[in-house]
Amino acid sequence: MEVTMDPLFLAWSYFRRRKLQQCSDICTKILQDNPYDQAAWSLKTRALTEMVYIDEVEVDQEGIAEMMLDQSSIAQVARPGTSLRLPGTSQGGGPTPAVRPMTQSGRPITGFVRPSTQSGRPGTMEQAIKTPRTASTARPVTSASGRFIRLGTASMLTNPDGPFINLSRVNLAKYSQKPNLSRSLFEFIFHHENDVKNALDLAAQATEHAQFKDWWWKVQLGKCYYRQVYQRLDQPITALNLFKQGLDQFPGEVTLLTGIARIHEEMNNITSATEYYKDVLKQDNTHVEAIACIGSNHFYTDQPEIALRFYRRLLQMGVYNCQLYNNLGLCCFYAQQYDMTLSSFERALALVANDEEQADVWYNIGHVAVGIGDLILAYQCFKLALAFNNDHAEAYNNLAVLELRKGRIEQSKAFLQTAASLAPHMYEPHFNLSILSEKIGDLQNSYIAAQKSEDAFPEHIDTQQLLKQLRQHFAVL
């Protein structure tokens, strides 16, 4: 006779082993048989939360709705070094865009993924619109399971075609009085649904129910207020002062040190950010974000050997994903450890989760091919990058350079124009297009492209020299 494990204990085992999707699937089956099972419901909320969980004190970047519809205006032109929205407000110590890539908002590429890039939000507008409350019975359901089951109410029912939890039907006041459910529900609302308003309501009511003595709920209230206030108001200096006041009360607190490091990093003050990340590691030497960001900073400051040590530390800690092996491959190549380069990229390709990651890995392999002089392999790699991600501006730019080496001027020009339109914040396609246009005698377009290059990277010497030559030529005419 075959003995089978109880489904809930099996789901809990999967959760402990970080096999979150299998855990969620088993909980879904349990809830189909018994929709009011609070244990399975709570475990599924925790599994879904862990799938998208990065760090609760991280502030997500503003979406297009907040940027376009925001009517609050504090300062149109902020002083240098006091705003997160102004590109180029570096306070020194950070590499230039010629070395370290920049985002479209002018911030440097960090070494750690941010919640604004994570998935987990509703995929369609229909799912995003909250469905109205409908009539449903709260009649309890019997169960044949041998374990003790606490049954929930109709607000726990899940619509197969809708979201897992219908927040418009959840009675937050009732759940705030259930400590065993309220915490997992809060984290689900805050991280998975990204509904700060409902999360704040639940935290406020739970804090009141705990007679303002539960420190955990006070921390959650702080997270909700933090996500809504100072960084959204673009006042990083005020946010830094608040963090430092917190450090006066709680010296060495990792979450406060990490928050300070992130703000310095977003302000392009990489030196200060690295120092604070090192302070984080003094308190917690297994902090993944701090290790990754310090490794990334060493790589972009021409220290690939030191960066390799940090990424190997992540590997020893059990981090096993495409991004890590991709970074290991690049560090090995620039540190001249060629025997490990291709094997790292092969593992990265085996671990890709989507087409964007596949495109990035092939793009980096193309860079390795350029470095060893195999331009045919590089051309094929950049083509593969575009096959997986047709909006990969860097691949278009590099293909244009290779096409120009073959004498295909029109094809090269078309690739550069595409790259410039896809990534106007990059200076390379604008500069290359300016050089190409100047060589074929199209001085007007060359001047326009050079101006765009200067806007993207004002300190670029070659762009300044090209603009000077073009202005002298126009003055002669």
List keywords for this structure.
477 residues; mainly alpha
- Largest beta sheet, briefly? none
N-to-C SSE string, H for helix and E for strand: HHHHHHHHHHHHHHHHHHHHHHH
Over the alpha carbons, how many angstroms does the gyration radius reach? 26 Å
Q: Structural class of the helix and strand makeup?
A: mainly alpha
**β-strand number:** 0
**How many helical stretches?**
23
Shape: globular
Percentage of β-strand residues:
under 5%
Distance between the termini: 96 Å
What share of the residues lie within helices?
A: 55-70%
Unreliable stretches (pLDDT < 50, length at least 5) are: 115-159
The average pLDDT score comes to 79
Concise overview:
By secondary structure, this protein is mainly α. It is 60% helix and 0% strand.
Describe this structure in words.
The protein is mostly helical. It has helices at residues 7-16, 20-33, 38-52, 64-69, 125-128, 172-175, 179-192, 196-209, 215-228, 236-249, 254-266, 270-283, 288-300, 304-316, 322-334, 338-350, 355-371, 375-388, 393-405, 409-422, 428-439, 443-456, 461-476. α1 packs parallel to α3, α7 packs antiparallel against α8 (196-209) and α15 packs antiparallel against α16. The longest helix is centred in the C-terminal third of the chain and has 17 residues, at 355-371. The protein is globular, with a radius of gyration of 26 Å.
Topology:
Elements (H helix, E strand, L loop, with lengths): L6 H10 L3 H14 L4 H15 L11 H6 L55 H4 L43 H4 L3 H14 L3 H14 L5 H14 L7 H14 L4 H13 L3 H14 L4 H13 L3 H13 L5 H13 L3 H13 L4 H17 L3 H14 L4 H13 L3 H14 L5 H12 L3 H14 L4 H16 L1
Helix pairs in contact: 1-2, 1-3, 2-3, 3-7, 7-8, 8-9, 10-11, 11-12, 12-13, 13-14, 14-15, 15-16, 15-17, 16-17, 17-18, 18-19, 19-20, 20-21, 21-22, 22-23
